[in-house]
DNA sequence: TGGATCTGGTGCAACGATGCACTAGACGAT
DNA sequence: ATCGTCTAGTGCATCGTTGCACCAGATCCA
């Protein structure tokens, strides 16, 4: 039967006290003669001893388990991220408790509090809310909170670590890509912009538009209703609705579209097809995230890739940081996104860059 | 500061012993006068008491945390399932520890053992391996193992509960759909068939083919290399390779294709496009699972849907079953899959059912 | 040689909840 | 009054680990 060997058994086998075994286990080896250490290590190996987590946590108040709060692992982007987080945690000997917030601030708060009360001291919170007020109490109590996909805000609690790509650069990258291809009427499509990263992407879009000598005010920007749903599952629906709206004939339609993420972009593509248009030929579409389906789509979707594995690794390290370096300041890490050009973007019909007469 | 109130505090506040509080907490209320019970409940509410999980687990050996072992949450199907599992666990007051096996039997075993040794007594294992030998020890020790997406096998340990759709029916459904549309040359595309559910889907395919008076031996069946990779990420690559192979001109190509899952189907569609063919017009393709992208794809992918939410709910209930009803036998639950016809399937060109004259 | 200092380790009381074995007191039967 | 029985609730040892406070023995210095 597994899980039966205790620290006492190891101590007896090695001819030392349980305290010494504990000392070894907790790296208090400075005062221990090498021979003793080896005896204990031998005993541990021979008995196949594994410390009891519950006892450890009860006594020390610490745990190797991380909390991961994502909007929904049902969304391919978050699923991919969750996987990388688990991989990274495994490397550090930790586990991951999975929570789906459905982007509901109330659920976010409840999860964070519950995890905290269960003794979990490190949480990776994937939220795009501008404020962290709803979890401020717990942070003050000592929670190591790492936010992902949400750049730091001025009034965030000091200890918070933020990991994100530079969304403004990403938005710029996507938009410039379309401009370089020759597009001059470029739409921006998103659900509500009340999220930090979305508005940053939008800012990057605006910058690029202006830098090209175009005027944002003349561009078709579709941001759903400001008060509407925020879900990830709904993102595709948004995109579809946006396409229907922008190509309804009420205004001059765009030749290029920057979507706030791949799900929205995919939905937009579907909407284009509904309207009898062809993606990549009639209209260029670029997304954001590079989810697995982007490359599978027909046509393969151009997008801005987030370095998910690297970010997950960073997040796990920060969330696992030993409380020893308690003075460690909060900070913000912005990684650089990467443009992935595929077939959903091309020169606009009749553009200068297309085949010569 | 949260998590500070102990059972002693509650006992003191209610004027009873800690034992009585514990009795209430553990539903040993048969011997307790209602007034006492109410006093305790009041105290709990007023102090905001929450039992310490670690202490509980240490003492009782029980925990509310479930282990979930999926091939990879990066795969949209597993991501969607994981989400539903978490939702169901939440309803029962439980948590979910996430593990990605990458379909590696060694990792599966290590995860299961580790979870067991950490005191977790219920695990939902998403595996397609024909044998459960690699985790038999732990099951014997008392683990409540629920397998998902893997129908029970004759020599499975008795206590194992299996939850799955009826894959054979699913394969039959998909194939019959194509036959009904008029197809007579129907391929089956899969990675290795060394998995229980895939071979069941294949059996359903065979049944349907034979039932239609056609001959399986004349059908193009593509199953990758029997010894090849098994991954979910690779599934799309398989599909693409299969399309390249089946339309290389070496043999008469199929007009309809049954893919073993949606990722493979999507990859196949991409392969068709590589070959200059149009999905739904030149070739009909049907997948399996109904992942979120199936409906977004161009054209929307016909598929066989698994009732994920219902299955997740069932799995969680079984994995959380109190050890009280220890005599409860293992069993197998097969849910019925549902055909979702979309635009990737249509009558074959020149078929009787197409436009007359 | 006595006392200070250092080294390598041990003793033990927690951490917070559990649940078996027990009992104080009420009640009934004789 | 004595004894049994029942009810409602309590005492206490225990789960496995931790880490502070302590200590025996060796070494050093005057």
From TrEMBL, chains A, B:
The keyword DNA-binding applies. One of its GO terms (molecular function) is DNA binding. The keyword Transcription regulation applies. InterPro entries: HTH_LacI, LacI/GalR-like_sensor, Lambda_DNA-bd_dom_sf, Peripla_BP_I. Keywords: DNA-binding, Transcription, Transcription regulation. Pfam families: LacI, Peripla_BP_3. Residues 5-60 form the HTH lacI-type domain. This is LacI family DNA-binding transcriptional regulator. It comes from Microbacterium awajiense.
């Amino acid at each position: 039967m597994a899980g039966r060997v205790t620290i006492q058994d190891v101590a007896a086998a090695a001819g030392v006290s349980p305290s010494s075994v504990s000392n070894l286990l907790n790296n208090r080896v400075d005062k221990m003669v090498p021979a003793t250490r080896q005896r204990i290590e031998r005993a541990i190996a021979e008995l196949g001893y594994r410390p009891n987590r519950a006892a450890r946590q009860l006594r020390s108040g610490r745990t190797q388990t991380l909390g991961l709060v994502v909007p929904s692992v049902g969304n391919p982007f978050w699923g991919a991220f969750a996987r990388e987080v688990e991989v990274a945690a495994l490397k550090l000997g930790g586990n991951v408790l999975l929570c789906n917030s459905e982007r509901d601030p109330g659920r976010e708060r409840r999860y964070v509090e519950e995890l905290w009360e269960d003794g979990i001291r490190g949480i990776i919170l994937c939220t795009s809310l501008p404020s962290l007020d709803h979890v401020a109490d717990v942070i003050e109590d000592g929670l190591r909170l790492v936010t992902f996909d949400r750049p730091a805000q001025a009034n965030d609690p000091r200890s918070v670590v933020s990991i994100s790509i530079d969304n403004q650069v990403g938005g710029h990258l996507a938009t410039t890509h379309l401009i370089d291809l020759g597009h001059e009427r470029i739409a921006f499509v998103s659900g509500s912009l009340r999220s930090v990263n979305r508005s940053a992407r939008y800012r990057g879009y605006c910058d690029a538009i202006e830098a090209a000598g175009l005027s944002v005010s003349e561009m078709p920007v579709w941001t759903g209703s400001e008060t509407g749903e925020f879900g990830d599952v709904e993102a595709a629906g948004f995109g579809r609705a946006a396409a229907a709206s922008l190509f309804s004939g009420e205004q001059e339609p765009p030749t290029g579209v920057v979507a706030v993420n791949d799900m929205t972009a995919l939905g937009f593509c579907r909407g284009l097809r509904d309207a009898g248009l062809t993606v990549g030929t009639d209209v260029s579409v670029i997304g954001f995230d590079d989810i697995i389906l982007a490359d599978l789509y027909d046509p393969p979707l151009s997008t801005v890739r987030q370095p998910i594995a690297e970010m997950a690794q960073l997040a796990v390290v920060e969330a696992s940081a030993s409380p020893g370096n308690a003075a460690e300041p909060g900070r913000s890490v912005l990684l650089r996104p990467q443009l992935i050009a595929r077939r959903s973007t091309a020169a606009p019909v009749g553009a200068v860059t297309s085949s010569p007469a």
